[in-house]
Amino acid sequence: MFWFFGLIGLVIAILIIQILKFSHLAYSSNKTKYGIYSCIILGSITISPAIAGNLNYNYSQEKSECLSYFINELSISSGEHPNYYVFIDNNSEIERFTVDEELYYKLMDEIEIMLCTSDGLLNYKIVRDFRIK
């Protein structure tokens, strides 16, 4: 989802830059002009996926579907504030989820986990709940 909407943001940025060029709204100084162009490009590439993710999550369906998945691996990142990861096997793809410490230690003895998902506005799945089977 990120790369698709990032590409859409790039296209929007190019259109905005072309409008600025033809309407002479951009500054005539090359240093200032390229600074404005780079900010438009970077801003559009990053804000488009953020808006899409927010819309997908906030306007998702209320009805969720719970399916069982096998836990492939559990992992903890190193550092001052570690992250707790659960790797599951989803149709021969390994997906990583970040979970809280309490759920991580509950999953240490488990083989399967229930993931309750719902469809978002943009048809990307959203994980609503983790349940121990």
Give a structural overview.
There is one protein chain. The protein is of the alpha+beta class and 133 residues long. It has 2 domains: 2-58; 65-132, OB fold (Dihydrolipoamide Acetyltransferase, E2P) (Beta Barrel). The protein is built from 3 helices and 5 strands, in the order ααβββαββ. Strands 3-2-1-4-5 form a 5-stranded antiparallel sheet. It is elongated and about 65 Å long.
List the keywords:
single chain; about 130 residues; alpha+beta; five-stranded antiparallel β-sheet; 3 helices
| H/E element sequence | HHEEEHEE
- Beta content comes to 25-35%
3D shape: elongated
CATH topology title of the largest domain: OB fold (Dihydrolipoamide Acetyltransferase, E2P)
Adjacency order of strands in the biggest sheet? 3-2-1-4-5
| Unreliably modeled segments | none
Instruction: Please state the CA-atom Rg, rounded to the nearest Å.
Output: 21 Å
Average pLDDT taken over every residue: 87
How much helicity do the residues have?
Answer: 40-55%
Number of helices: 3
Number of strands: 5
Can I get a quick summary?
The protein has two domains: 2-58; 65-132, Beta Barrel (OB fold (Dihydrolipoamide Acetyltransferase, E2P)).
